[in-house]
Amino acid sequence: MACTETQFVMHTAKRLGDTNKSQGTYKVGNPYEVKGIWYTPAEDWEYDQTGIASWYGPQFHGKATANGEVFDEWSVSAAHKTLPMPSMVRVTNLENGRSLVVRVNDRGPFASSRIIDMSHRAAQLLGFDLQGTARVRVQVMAEESRILAQRAKGERVQLASNEAPIQSDGISSSSVATQELAPLEEAPSSPVETMAMNEAPASNPASNPSASNPRTQVGYLAQYPVSPTRMYVQAGAFSDKLNAEKVKSRLSSIGDVTVTPVPVNGRELFRVRLGPVEDVADADRLLNQVVEAGYDTARTVVETAEVN
User: Fold this and answer.
1) I need a labelling partner for 234 at 20 to 30 A (CA). Which of 97, 189, 190, 243 fits?
2) pLDDT tens, 64-77?
3) Ordered structural domains, the chain, with CATH
4) Residue 130: which pLDDT band, with cuts at 50, 70 and 90?
5) In contact, 191 and 9? CB cutoff 8 Å
């Protein structure tokens, strides 16, 4: 399916080339504990998970983020529990198909049932600010995140092919054609690019030294077709099927539990899941029960035909 490229709305977000204006520092951080649960920050350039997103705004507006920036609820940003700060992620609302490039510059959310906390503006663009939560997929953008890390560390940014390294202190933007999406209720409209599910947005500025591709810019919005989703609570994934079956037995009094084999990085794991459940409130209650049963790394996952 051919795609129509979008011109980014500059008053609502920053170009990737402008993110070096941030006053924050690059930070990964040490393992930390919140409400009895331990989190281990790491440079995970293959991060790709589904779950429930929430958003935060007025009560934190103007306050310092975890890496020393000033939080602006009307900028496109997000808080994540473990990804480096700053880093870039693509967040896709699996309920309406909207997909937004977002800059992570804070820690959170610290409800175990939430995977990412969006700024107010990011939630508007993704279309869930009124309902408060959404089923999402979060994918790290590795090359863009490395560029942000270099800038935050005060290093020169290298945008290069293998044959011809190119040094750059900034990334320019160019005008492209636009396609309008119907406005969100009580939120300004933004042009979006309509894409097929098998057509991933370009995410490697090194292949384009001018980096003029708007698909790599913070605030870039795309629209995907929507597929039905189901929510589960995943207690864990185990390399030993016997261990997975033991967990299933321990949790069987809570609800329907399944053990499913899944290939991960060339090996087979056995994931233990409860559900499916119909809505976020039900998922929250079920997750709390699983955590109270001793599985504090359990999480809510969302499954579609494309995301397993």
Assistant:
1) 97
2) 999 999 999 999 99
3) 1-226 (2.40.40.10), 230-303 (3.30.70.1070)
4) very high
5) yes
